[in-house]
Structure formats: C-alpha cells, structure tokens
Amino acid sequence: MPLSQVPYWRLSGFYFFYFACLGVLVPYWSLYLQWEGFSASQIGELTAILLASRIVAPNVWGWIADHKGQRMRIVRSASFAATLVFAGIFIDQSYLWVAGTLLLFSFFWNASLPQFEVTTLQHLGDHSHHYSKVRVWGSVGFIVIVMSLGWLLEIFDPGIVPIALLLSTTGIWLVSLMVPESASRHMSLEPVSLGALLKRPAVIAFLAMCFLAQASHGPYYTFYTIYLEQYGYGRGLIGQLWALGVFAEVIIFLFMHRWLPRFGLRYVLLVSLLLSALRWILIALFPQNLPVLIFAQLLHAASYGTYHAAAIAWVHRHFIGKTQGRGQALYSSVSFGAGGALGSLISGYLWQTPGPMWTYLLASGLTLLALLISLIWLKEDDRHKNPAL
Q1: Which of 324, 304, 313 is closest to 258 using CA atoms?
Q2: Mean pLDDT throughout 107-112?
Q3: In a 10 Å sphere around its CB, with 0-12 CB exposed, 13-18 middle and 19+ buried, how is residue 328 labelled?
Q4: Are residues 300 and 14 in contact, defined by beta-carbon separation less than 8 angstroms?
Q5: Model pLDDT for residues 266-293, shown as the tens digit of each residue
Q6: pLDDT tier, 58 (very low <50, low <70, confident <90, very high otherwise)
Q7: Alpha carbon distance 31, 38 (integer Å)
Q8: How confident is the model at residue 124 (pLDDT cuts 50, 70, 90)?
C-alpha cells in the first residue's frame, strides 16, 4: 500500500512535535532543574513524577478509547489540556508547585501517544511494517530541537527550556487537529480478553523485559547532560551527541520495514538488548573518551530504534481487536511509566553515592537481566508468520 493512501504528513507532523517535546525534556529538563537550584535527588524525583503518570494515565485513556472509539478526539483534548497545564510552570518554581504541574501535565500529555500509535497503525492497516517510515519524523523533530536548543543554551541561560517545551506542546495540539480518525475496517473484530492475554508467559516476559529495558535508561535520560558537563563538555557538543544518537535511530528506522519480516521480532529485541548493555558500560567507563562516547551514542540505534520499532510491532500483533488501545497503553505504562520512573528515582539516589559510573553499570545489569528473561520466556518466533508485519 503506497504511503500516499494514508495521511502521511499529518501523522508524521504529530510525531515531529511530540518527540521535539521529548528533545526538550530528555536532554535539558534536568539542566533547567539544576539551574533552578534543585538537588540531584530532587531532580530524580521530579523526573520520576513526570514519568510515573504513565503508569496510570495511558491505561485510563486506553480503556476509554477502546470502549468509546474516537481516539483522535481524546488525543486532541489531552494535547490541549497538557499545553494549558504546562503554562503554569511559569507561575512558580517551588518544588511542590513544579511537582504538581509536572504530574498534571504528564497525565494529559501521556494520554496522547499510545492512542496515536493505534491510529497510525490502523491507518497503515495490513502494512504496519511501514510504521517506522512515519515514526522517523519524530526522530527528526528530536534532532532539530536538541541541536537548536543546545546552540541557544550556549548563548542564553536554561530559563529558555520551559519556553521551548511550551512551543512544542502547542505544536502537538495544532497538528492533532488535522489528523483524521482511522478507518474502522482496520480494527480486528476477533474477540479477545485482555485478562487472557496477560496470563500468557510470552506476554508477561515481554512486559518484564520492557520494564527493565526502560529502567536502565534512567541515568541516561535524567543525568546524561549533567554527567557530560562534569567532564568539561560544552552544551553545544552535548546537544550534538544527543542528536547523533537520534540520527542513528533515524537511519535504522529507514530499514526496519525490511528487517522485521526478515529476522523476526524476538531476534531483533534480543540483539537490541545486548547492544544496549554494551552502551551503558561504555558510558560508565569511558566518559572522557569522546570517540567512545560517539560510538555509544550510535548504539542508540539499538537501545531505542530497533527495540522500540520491534516492541510496537509486537504489541500490535498480540493485542488485537478491542485491546489495541489498552495494549499500547500497557506497553507505555509498564516501560516508559513504571520502568522509567524507577530508573530515574534510583539514578537520582545513587548519583552522588556510589556515583555515576556505578549507576550506569547498574543500568547495564538491568538490561542484561531483561535479555536473560527474553531468552528464556520470550519463545515465540514471529518470523515469516505474517509477511505484512
């Protein structure tokens, strides 16, 4: 099916602004919080709050979407509410106010992506393996904002970070107004019980793997910018390193529609986890070696690119019918929500003692545990079972 038959640029535009928002939050939000005077443990807690709402919010909105339909109406409403709430960050910078604003903002902001993922996959229909060609524009958005903001932070203080975030969330809402609802014919009518799905060993193993994989990203997403500043790297170079990782992700996304049918989801996930563990070890042991850091950033193609594309495809294949929205929501809440929140909390508490190196080594250990679980229990090999993966 040619991509011209789907609202390609409108779908891609949403991903562009959504991940531009992440391009502000992930590399620079902790820098902004540090500039406001928060300690390492407080930064970890505030980042965890931002992620923790993903444990609840996606499931609430996913249940509503699966039972009521009209996913884009939910996406539009949630995006507008998130933008409105985040504007409150300019009122006060006390710990409790920032925590409350982030909690409410993330409750609405986290509602949109899982339902938009379902909308995109339903627009693609039997050609869901082309998902990465749409999603790649999210990576482009991340690169554009992380490079631009890194350069601007060489000139201005981190007070510009929340302004950039507000502009990005506004873009999410405006683009969502132009995206049509997906055609109902792409929704499988096969009856399936969510409870029955959650009893399958492969599903349990998959969710455990996702939880651990995202928990391992805690020190990276929360402290990587601060970590590199401690070793004398400038903010412009740090922004370029962030962008390099996502650029590698972009390249990978261009090939995923071929690799997934060829190698199968399980194999891609296992290799992604192995390379992720290597990445955290390199960051832990060689922070002063720029060539090694560059190589570690290129491994973002595995720790996020191939991993996420395969995970989204896995959820789309196994959570069918009226469980599609809750399936994507569950993936988001278990991995980016619970896993991300725990990873941020742990890294915040361990950052000073025993220190960054051991925090990143622990992240590698979590990834290896995810790899072990997947090797033992994620038995299902999807290769060649669905030529339209």
Answers
A1: 313
A2: 87
A3: buried
A4: no
A5: 999 999 999 999 999 999 999 999 999 9
A6: confident
A7: 10
A8: confident
* pTM of the predicted structure, to 2 decimals: 0.81
Contact in structure between 273 and 222 (CB atoms under 8 Å):
no
User: Where do we find the tokens 């349990």?
Assistant: 204
DSSP 9-56: HHHHHHHHHHHHHHHHHHHHHHHHHHHTT--HHHHHHHHHHHHHHHHH
Residue 382 structure tokens: 């999807």
Tell which residue, 44, 14, 36, has the closest CA to residue 161.
Answer: 36
C-alpha to C-alpha distance for 261 and 345, rounded to whole angstroms: 37
Interacting residues of 119 by C-beta distance below 8 A, sequence separation 6+: 11, 71, 72, 75, 179, 181, 182
Residue with tokens 């203080």: 157
Helical residues (DSSP H) of 177-319, grouped into ranges: 194-197, 201-215, 218-230, 235-253, 256-263, 265-285, 290-298, 300, 307-318
Task: Look at residue 385 in the predicted model and tell me its pLDDT.
Answer: 47
Q: At a CB cut-off of 8 Å and minimum separation 6, what does 27 contact?
A: 146, 149, 150, 224, 225, 238, 239, 242
